[in-house]
Amino acid sequence: MSIATTNLIEQQAIEAKKAAKILNLLSTEEKNEAILHVASMLKKNANLILKANKLDLIKGEKANFTSALIDRLTLTHERINDFADGLCQVAELEDPTGIVKSSWTLENGLKVDTVTVPLGVIGMIYEARPNVTVDATGLALKSGNAVILKGGSSALESNKMIVQIMHNALEETRIPKEAVQFISSTNREVTKQLFTMKEHIDVLIPRGGASLISAVVNNATVPVLETGVGNCHIYIDANADINKALPIFINAKTDRPAVCNAAETLIVHEEWFNVHHKQLFEMLKEQGIDVFGDEAVVNSFPMASLATEKDWAEEYLGLGIAIKTVKSVDEAIDHIDQYGTKHSEAVITDNAETAKYFMSQVDAAAIYHNASTRFTDGGALGFGAEIGISTQKLHARGPMGLPALTTVKYLMSGTGQIRE
Amino acid sequence: MSIATTNLIEQQAIEAKKAAKILNLLSTEEKNEAILHVASMLKKNANLILKANKLDLIKGEKANFTSALIDRLTLTHERINDFADGLCQVAELEDPTGIVKSSWTLENGLKVDTVTVPLGVIGMIYEARPNVTVDATGLALKSGNAVILKGGSSALESNKMIVQIMHNALEETRIPKEAVQFISSTNREVTKQLFTMKEHIDVLIPRGGASLISAVVNNATVPVLETGVGNCHIYIDANADINKALPIFINAKTDRPAVCNAAETLIVHEEWFNVHHKQLFEMLKEQGIDVFGDEAVVNSFPMASLATEKDWAEEYLGLGIAIKTVKSVDEAIDHIDQYGTKHSEAVITDNAETAKYFMSQVDAAAIYHNASTRFTDGGALGFGAEIGISTQKLHARGPMGLPALTTVKYLMSGTGQIRE
């Protein structure tokens, strides 16, 4: 990497930090007006975005991108309207900053307020979807944060155009355009520079596949909000009602197989398995699901392949499922402990004690009793926009909306108080 | 490092994780009873602790430890009573787990509860003070967490004896003794093993000097709660009342110079400086404070040395102070941005606008207007015991009590809900 590029990135980070301080002084109304203006300019300039997107799509086709990747990359008038409307929704959400969380006065008269404030500068590292450029910008600005955007190189032209339009729009508002920084270098070493810029960046949020996320988590000294990898399990207990178990499993597996809250492993108590495996396998066949199972599964379902270690850890993100039989709920919990990603886990049982035990012992952001894992989602839970789904335990867990982009300050007002 | 040691540490971490699951099933009463029993056994066995402490002190004297270090290392009957009483106070605090933070039902009938739960396994890495062994154990157990203790090698014998007494005590309670793991190896490579045990450890909390903390922050892939380095500034504005400014500064500098909320740099507006520097310097002289100042300071106070870059970043932790003069509040804020550690910062001014601006633009856990920085402390703020003072923005900021040792789970209870 050239020294010039490093300096450029650092310069962008410094500009972002300065802009964050200005953002900190704006009112909710000023932020909302700016966000709405950005939304309207994105709609107005949709044709420019589509033209730039076309360039990315041509490049992607030449590079033989999968149809799934092409789909994620593709923008249409409708998709542009959707992300612009998303900005309007963000403008309507409550401002998460400036909220007094607690307030008290010490005996000596010192007044203590804890107040929510922006994190400062957010580094967003993401992959193909160009809508993230807009979604992340809206959530960052609304919560008073500057944002440094590092999108995937496959969407470079689309992202550049979107950012240019957003910059032009911001110039007509009170938000400095420097609050939105876009890194256009496609050099991976440049992304790595962001990992260690503790001086200028307050948090990194990686959004994308497991390898992107682990690269950030394992190399960053800047604090990270880990999102989205979901190796989710459905555990069908001995006492599970088949009329709940099968529909829940099929919904969790097939409703949207490519998303992080989809089921990837089915764990079945052997007592239930012995009674119901024929119905289970019929349904798997009907749905065209590829099965990777343990010996018990392979022995009773000839279309299944024997699962390897890799299958237990795999996010198929498609119509594959790993199936394991167990002798007890503890064996199921141990398996989830070993292979789960702390995202969403479900137990299907009519035994309330088993459900309670599973929910206490499994370590994950969301734990379901007799329901599909597909509800771990800001939209489904009624939060409005989300910046990602946290699979870590510190700071924020599960779907992260605007409050996850804030921290608190202790503001102490005195009249000369000293500690005796 | 031998393979045997690595395996031992990993084994300890695995045992801690298993014990954390058992802890998760205990009632508040069961945890409290255990903590109180540990407290009483520590008091009963004080002589054994003092005998072990004597061994550490002899070693320390041979190694020519400073008197400050010897003081931190030294236990007395009174200090043992203090930390045992601290455990009793922790038993009395509200259980931070099992608290329903929010609860709602989706239109389809799926019930959603967010409930506080323990983090799991806490890795505590600390230096000389043996009381941390007890304080951290109490806070961890009360919040349902297992703890892995890695104390400083200078306190090895004291810590080993304290842990042995705590283990013996726990054997008579419902808390498995494996919930408290002590690493007795003094090999630094062993500590490093803890940095990357993401599978088994949920959070690392370093407590100690800046070099310990930065070693953890820069090398850990396990999430870290950063604590305690405090390069705190007092900014005396043009409009500061000298009768507030001088007492506040002296209190912040001299009340307990070795602690993290003590003042390390004084920033003075030149208008105030021009009028009041004689009184300021008289007081510094009187208090025996060593001054490292910029040119304006050195020119008017012959006993001052010229400050170097190092002084602006230095935590003297003793009777030294760096003094800088500025032309504006913005210059003060820029200086704090560059050298501050986001701990505690104060502005002394009678101008409410300046105070508000300073409090909004300075990025720190605690910001004071017309009061000493010494109040950033769980005890002073009325929180009860604290595990450390967070200088990071994610998860917890400022003094961290029991709630900082918890996270939330989304518990979803359904009757077969699927996403349509």
TrEMBL record, chains A, B:
Checking InterPro entries in the record gives: Ald_DH/histidinol_DH, Ald_DH_C, Ald_DH_N, Aldehyde_DH_dom, G-glutamylP_reductase_CS, Glu-5-SA_DH, GPR_dom
For this UniProt entry, which segments traverse the membrane?
A: none
Query: What is the top-level taxon of the source organism?
Result: Bacteria
Enumerate the UniProt keywords alphabetically. Answer: Amino-acid biosynthesis, Cytoplasm, NADP, Oxidoreductase, Proline biosynthesis
Signal sequence extent: none
The GO terms describing molecular function are: glutamate-5-semialdehyde dehydrogenase activity
Q: Using the record for this protein, list the coiled-coil segments as residue ranges, or answer none.
A: none
Indicate yes or no for the key word NADP: yes
Per the record's keyword annotation, is Disulfide bond included, yes or no?
no
The entry's localization annotation reads: Cytoplasm
Tell me which EC number(s) this protein carries: 1.2.1.41
Classification via PANTHER family = DELTA-1-PYRROLINE-5-CARBOXYLATE SYNTHASE, GLUTAMATE SEMIALDEHYDE DEHYDROGENASE
Under NCBIfam families, the record lists:
PRK00197.1 (NF001221), proA (TIGR00407)
Q: Which family does it belong to?
A: Belongs to the gamma-glutamyl phosphate reductase family.
Report the protein name in the record: Gamma-glutamyl phosphate reductase
**Gene of this entry:** proA
